[in-house]
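SAMPLE LOG
Freezer: B-3
Tube label: C17
Construct: single chain, 149 aa
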Amino acid sequence: MSVQFIDPRGPRFGAGITSVLSLGTFAAAIGAVFNTTAAFVLMAVLLASFLWSVFSPASHPYQLIFKKLVRPRLKEPSELEDPRPPQFAQKVGLSFAILGGIGVALLSETVVAIAAAFIFLAAFLNAFFAFCLGCQMYLLLKRAGLLGK
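STRUCTURE (predicted):
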């Protein structure tokens, strides 16, 4: 199986959007802006986004926006990356979004706030510092032999 390498700026672009959504979710969950309903709706949007990115990444709106509107305006990337670490990172994000979904189901602003905070932290680090926590987890697990070849 050959790996189709990707432009690393694509996942970073998506992480920027996720940062904004998750920060808004957190702020609404703690009552700083909007209300609890907004926090629950935004968490549902994050959950749907992560589900989409895991199960159909090529058709994800962030990917399409990057590919059609952003990428043509950029220079060629200086390097390409293996898509498996970012895909793993999306699965980690999905696990936190599921936690947030459970918080919505339980009508718990606290659980939603905690999930949104973790999502924000990871997305922010990726978007603004090019440090992907999920990718680093993938590499550590791979080196430890806990992930397949």
